Amino acid sequence: MGSRRAIELGAVILILLSFVGKIGGFIASIPDVMVAGLLCCMWAMIGALGLSNLRYSETGSSRNNIIIGLSLFLSLSVPAYFQQYGLIPSSNSSVPSYFQPYVVASHGPIHTSSRGVNYVLNTLFSFHMVIAFIVAFILDNTVPGSRQERGVYVWSEPEAAKREPAITKDYGLPFRIGRMFTWVKWVGL
Fold first, then answer.
1. Cα separation of 138 and 131, whole Å?
2. pLDDT tens for the 189 residues of the chain, in order
3. For 36, what's the count of Cα atoms within 13 Å in the CB-facing half-sphere?
4. Which contacts (CB < 8 Å, 24+ apart) does range 63-67 have?
5. Do residues 135 and 71 lie in contact, with contact meaning Cβ atoms separated by under 8 Å?
6. What is the pTM of this model?
C-alpha cells in the first residue's frame, strides 16, 4: 500500500478500537507466532513497496544495478561489523537483536575525543537502513547517469507528475485538501 488513504483509515480504526477494552484484550491474546508471521508479511510488503519505487528509473541499467547491489550488500555487511562489538565475550548472555545498536553505541569501533560523537556514529552505522540510504544517496548523486536513468524526469516537471495517475493517487491529500496547498510547487501536484 502506497496510498495515504489506507494509512488514514487504518489509524482512525485503531484509534476507535483503542477505546474498547475487550478488543485490546483480544489483540493482546494473539500468540507471538501469529504476530511474527504477520510481521514477516508486513515487512516483505514494505520491502517490495520500496523496490517498486524504482519503476521510474531504468532498472536494466548497469549503473542502477550496481548502485542497488552495493547499497544492499553494504547495508548488510557494515552493520554486522559494527554489531559484533555488541557481543560481550566474558558474558554468556547475549543482548536481544533490537537492543544491539544501543549496546554498540557505548563501545563500538569508532573512537573520537567526543563521547557524544562516538555514540551517534556507532549507533547510526549499526542500522541497516542508514547504511543503505547513505550508500545509495551518495552513489546516485555522484555516478553519472541521464535523467531517464536516474528516474528524476518524472519529478522534474509538475505537468509530468500530474499526468502520472499513480503519483496523483498515492500522494494526493485526502478530501480535496490539496486545493488549499496549490502554492506548494515543489511537490508538483
1. 11
2. 556 777 788 888 888 888 888 887 887 888 989 988 988 888 888 888 777 777 777 777 888 889 989 999 999 999 888 877 765 555 555 656 666 666 666 777 888 888 888 888 888 888 888 999 999 999 988 999 887 787 776 656 666 556 666 666 656 666 666 666 665 554 444
3. 3
4. 63/143, 63/144, 63/145, 63/149, 64/145, 64/149, 66/139, 66/143, 67/136, 67/139, 67/140, 67/143
5. yes
6. 0.59
Q: Which amino acid is at 143?
A: V
Measure the CA–CA gap between 68 and 51, rounded to whole angstroms: 10
Query: Rounded distance, CA 186 to CA 164, Å?
Result: 16
- CB count in 10 Å sphere of residue 31: 8
Q: Which amino acid is at 79?
A: P
CA quadruple 86, 91, 94, 98: dihedral sign:
negative
Q: Is the dihedral of CA 142, 143, 146, 150 positive or negative?
A: negative
Contact (CB, 8 A) for 3 and 169: yes
Q: How far apart are CA 173 and CA 91, in angstroms?
A: 53
Roughly how many angstroms between the first and final C-alpha of the chain, as a whole number?
Answer: 20
pLDDT of residue 73: 94
